[in-house]
Amino acid sequence: MHFHLITLFPNAFDSYLGESIISRAIEEKKIKVSFYNPRDFVTDRWRRVDQRPFGGGPGMVLQAEPILKAVKKAIGRKDRRHIKIVFFSPGGAQFDTAYAQKAAGKYKHIICICGRYEGVDARAIKILRADHISVGPYVLTGGELPAMLVMDCIARQIPGVLGKLESLEENRVASHEVYTRPEVFMWGGKNYRVPEVLRSGNHKKIDAWKLDKNSL
Fold first, then answer.
1. CA–CA gap between residue 95 and residue 79 (Å, rounded)
2. Which domain covers residue 190, as residue numbers?
3. What pLDDT, on a 0 to 100 scale, did the predictor assign at position 173?
4. Domain co-membership, 45 together with 19
């Protein structure tokens, strides 16, 4: 899987991509990440990519042409059937695991357009026929954090990224409430114990406990 990130701030991804599972997946060539800065596709001396919005209002809007040129560079001569373009918007469809699974199984290239300021000229998004994706019912200052979230969720669906297929919580009975050793520890003068069912060895009861915890 090759992730192509259209962003004004590629350095914002450094710490995330350089650590843990995602870093290892890149080193092992399970995934690849490329950056395209819209400023590299303008010719004026100030490398300006934003203008005031039509209709008034505060802030600035990213222009369509630099975004389109950046995406065109990312696409190159690739088969469009293997490419999914996403744009992060509070008004988009809710991103979820089902979307990630479908993307991982169908596409080789995911192009993420990371907006900033008041957003991206809507004409660019319409021309690209990009999916409008939201990562939650809130507004962020840019699309970089949503892009990291989407990369993480899709990447973990790719065979080998997590090491074992069983590591995917989606493929097994898993609980949001987990415990590890020791079985008992003291804090503030009180003993805290691992639930007895998890120490029972009865996998049927353990699975039932996990399902019950997930329903709370």
1. 24
2. 173-214
3. 63
4. yes
